[in-house]
Amino acid sequence: EIVIVGEERRAPYQRPPLSKNYLAGQMAAEQVMLKPEKFYAERTIELKLGTRVATIDRAAMAVRLESGESLAYSKLLLATGSRPRKLAIPGADLPGMHYLRTLADVDAIRAEMASGKRAVVIGAGYIGLEAAAVAAGAGMNVCVLEAAERVLGRVSGPLVADFIADAHRTQGVDLRCGVRIEALEGSGRVQS
Predict the structure, then answer these.
(1) Whose CA is closest to 145, among 164, 119, 166, 114?
(2) Distance CA 113, CA 121 (A)
(3) Beta bridge partners of 5
(4) Of 90, 100, 102, nearest to 123 (Cα)?
(5) pLDDT for the residue 81
(6) How many CB atoms lie within 10 A of CB 165?
(7) Measured in whole angstroms, how far is the alpha carbon of residue 141 from the centre of its chain?
(8) Rg of the Cα atoms in the chain
(9) Whole-angstrom Cα distance, residue 100 to residue 106?
(10) Contacts of 135 (CB under 8 A, 6+ apart)
(11) Please, are residues 144 and 152 in contact by the beta-carbon 8 Å criterion?
(12) Partners of 64 in beta bridges
């Protein structure tokens, strides 16, 4: 017996295309799914979606879901993935401020993308730079803000970082490194 518990209401899907092809509208949601829904039913894999594990009792070999339901297990795989670091600055909760992790996140971002509009991307790691490239390709005016002194600072050396930064600047991206964001401002929605 296999049970997959997930807090999203969707079956498991690939995340790498979210900041590239899916954001650009070149892939449909069905194309990022790991398997079609019928795959799970045909193999009697139970999907418990839209719920989270509240606790794990290793001694009893059971997990308790937020709903209160308890699931016994003989083997447990934790595949939690990562989460964006939330900004702890004034204005971080204003409408128009988005994080990019889920299909729903990307759908909300895509709904606001339009040629000529301005996008500010906070963070020049892979996901931020991919999203910036897609936005620039869609005709948006894009500014990327990075706290570190170079792009991809945690995953690449200076030569690669400089090459990637130059490629983005060539596509019209305003790339600013070594900056600290103090606040997001706006009246009813983020504006600056």
Answers:
(1) 119
(2) 13
(3) 48
(4) 100
(5) 84
(6) 20
(7) 21
(8) 20
(9) 6
(10) 113, 119, 121, 142
(11) no
(12) 55, 70
Residue 125 has a pLDDT of 95
For the segment 125-152, what is each residue's pLDDT rounded down to a tens digit?
999 999 999 999 999 999 999 999 999 9
Backbone φ/ψ region at 179: left (φ over 0), alpha (ψ -120 to 50), beta: beta
Per the structure block, which two tokens stand in for 23? 């954001």
Q: Which residues of 119-155 are buried (b: 16+ CB within 10 A; e: fewer)?
A: bbbbbbebbbbbbbbbbbebebebebbbeeebbbbee
Cα separation of 10 and 171, whole Å? 34
Residues facing 118 on adjacent strands: 141
The phi, psi pair for 97, rounded to 5°, reads -95, 125
What tokens does 37 get? Answer: 């829904």
Taking only the tens place, the pLDDT of each residue in 55-99 is 999 999 999 999 999 999 999 999 988 888 899 999 999 999 999
Question: b/e string for 6-41 if b means 16 or more Cβ within 10 A?
Answer: beeebbbbebebbbbbbbbeeeeeeebbeeeeeebe
Which amino acid belongs to residue 124? A
pTM (whole model) above 0.85: yes
Question: Does residue 151 contact residue 124 with C-beta atoms inside 8 Å?
Answer: yes
DSSP letter string over 81-124?
---PPPP-STTTTSTT----SSHHHHHHHHHH--TT-EEEEE--
